[in-house]
Amino acid sequence: MASLGTEMNGHIRPRIWAVGGGKGGVGKTVITANSAISLAQQGKSCIALDLDLGGANLHTVLGVPDPDRSLSDFLRRKVDTLSDTMVPTPYPNLHFISGSKALLEIANPKFSQKEKLIRHINTLDVDYVLLDLGAGSSFNTLDFFLSADEGVLVVLPEPTSVENAYHFIKAAFYRRLKKATRKTGVAEAIDKAMEEKVARGIQSPRTLIKNVLQINPEAGHALEEEAKSFKPNIIVNQARKRDDQELGNDIVQACHDYFGISVRNLGHIEEDESLKEAVRLRRAVVDAFPVSSFARSIHSIVRNLLGVRNYSI
Amino acid sequence: MSRDTLGRDYKLLDLKEGATAQEVRRAYHRKKTLYSEGSLATYSLLTPEQREEMLDKIERAYMRISRDIQSRLPTPEAPVSPESAPAPAPLRPGESLGAYLKQRREELGLTLRDIANSTRIRTTYLEHIENERLVDLPAPVYLRGFVLEFARVLGLPDPESITAAYLEMAKEENS
Predict the structure, then answer these.
(1) Chain A, window 10-29: residues with a beta carbon less than 8 angstroms from a chain B beta carbon
(2) For an engineered disulfide with A24, which of A41, A135, A272, B129 has Cβ 3.0 to 4.6 Å away?
(3) What residues in B contact A257, CB-CB < 8 Å?
(4) Other C-beta atoms lying within 10 Å of the C-beta of residue B7
(5) What is the pLDDT of residues B23-56, one digit of tens each?
(6) A253–B46: do the CB atoms touch at under 8 Å?
């Protein structure tokens, strides 16, 4: 497999990484921006795409003025191709697309537009596209998360954030199963298992699959395969204590034990004063403070994500 | 005990069969911490009942694995596992409960340290229980768990009634 992009229908498509996290203010945007710069610094061509509905500020972290072009120009056919909505950033190899306004327009009713957008993101002529997802686990967010090659969740060492992350993982998993059932026709078995939800005490994906296996073994095995191929990643941000550094591994363990889902821990990021300093300088941390603990963590996370791909091939 | 159960126990603690005693202890403590009440990772994931159930599962898996490892020790003085040892003699009326526990322990070729290792009860307490040194024993609420665990690892039939009898005896002596 070539190191740049993945082949699809004879075309090379970009690798897509989506960064979400269920909760707002966990550092998704800063992590997306700095990871994109880290990739660009390694000579990969990248696009950072802002899909944060509520608080779109990826452009600020990247040092780009709020662009007058966005995805909505593409969806309204004001421009011919998606790449016409790209704007340059101060960083070589890195472009930016604002999608926030467009997302407002394509909210729930226009499912087909979302699908179209996902299709066109896949045709962008770059090595990597990084999606900054909004907070929450709406269907929009989940679908972008699931469309990516690597879905990344940012978690803070706080009960609410951890709870949201579990909720997100479960919601994404069920969404994925639901989509898969359209193909394999196991919807009936899932529905049946879900109807008996209360009586059978189904709380986790693992129990759901167990129940489907009893009702319809063939469908159950199909779901098992789906479960195996669902591999979200997590990052613990703003780690302060030693326990916080272990949190990522603990979540991986708990997801395995209780959901039967393998989550990959990409590493933790320690609290770092250089973040505030970088904002003041209007520069990204990996650029302004390349040897800070934050920058080193970002590089290591990016390496892990790149590695994920090599191992799996 | 079936190999299936044991296989599941090893899996629960994320261990491979053939793990060393130290690896088993480490895995056990890690799992226990993960599912303890103050754990951030499982705080929002489990109901109190599920947490109890999980901790109980971990505890039992650890006990069974510990016994499995002990039974595989190649040394000639390897202790007899309670399952393969001769059935314990029934408790005679009027027999001292402490002496009864001690006799059974020696019959299995286990030292107080062995018992302490598999029950996590301090050897001094085990010794006091055997010698019925009631003044030095912990409060009944702890004592209950200690005696129950002790009787259980010795493979004695009906550990609950032995424990109840022991507590009854201790209560009478103290009053």
Answers:
(1) none
(2) A135
(3) 54
(4) 11
(5) 898 899 999 999 998 899 998 888 888 889 999 9
(6) no
